[in-house]
Specification:
The protein has helices spanning about 5-20, 80-85, 95-105, 145-160, and strands at about 30-35, 45-50, 60-65, 85-90, 110-115, 140-145, 165-170. The protein is α/β, with parallel strands linked by helices. It has a single domain, classed as Glucose Oxidase, domain 1, CATH 3.50.30.
């Protein structure tokens, strides 16, 4: 098949419409960078909750990413004091995404990153939606691939650290692709 100039124009105009129709919009991703520990100093990709939670009004240059205890964050947190004014890393399962977000919010967290509980998940993003309780949450809620969450928690355990230091959100549009340090275990 040979396309003339008009044909290429139609193809170029059709592609964005096709992509938008299938829900694959680039702005549906939010990026954060782990600054410490150094062995996981990568830029991670997360997706925001679809119909609950807030948005980032501030860029945090250095904020703690604190793994919640217990990791599913479905009730009282034993390390809730450390989550106050920080971002919590919780694990999927045990209760709804909204319930986890509200638990972190009630402990004073600025946001929650919920990683998949399937630690081998390195490519499938789950759409986080509101549960049927009509409750709301004001803090941002993000979904993180299971492999990424596992690797962050594993690094913290190996170094004996109670939290990672991250920068969030990160604007990746100004970073050349070859400098975009994404985790080596995640392939696109």
């Amino acid at each position: 098949m040979v396309l003339g100039a008009a044909g290429w124009c139609c193809l170029v105009l059709w592609l964005p419409a096709c992509v938008a129709a299938h829900g694959l919009r680039i702005h549906d991703y939010l990026y954060f960078q782990v600054l410490s520990p150094g062995d996981i100093r990568y830029i991670f990709t997360a997706t925001p909750a679809k119909d609950f939670g807030g948005i980032f009004h501030t860029r945090y240059e250095q904020i703690h990413l604190v793994p919640a205890e217990p990791s599913e964050a479905c009730g009282e947190l034993s390390n809730g004091f450390f989550i106050q004014d920080q971002i919590a890393l919780v694990e999927r399962g045990g209760c709804s995404f909204l319930s986890k977000t509200r638990v972190v919010q009630e402990h004073g967290g600025r946001a929650v990153i919920i990683s998949d509980n399937a630690v081998d998940n390195d490519s499938f993003y789950v759409e986080m939606i509101q549960d049927s309780t009509q409750r709301t949450a004001d803090i941002p809620a993000l979904f993180l691939l299971g492999r990424d969450g596992y690797m962050i928690r594993r690094s913290l355990e190996q170094h004996g650290l109670p939290w990672a230091i991250i920068s969030i959100p990160v604007n990746v549009t100004s970073i050349p692709t070859f400098e975009l340090l994404q985790p080596p275990w995640t392939f696109w």
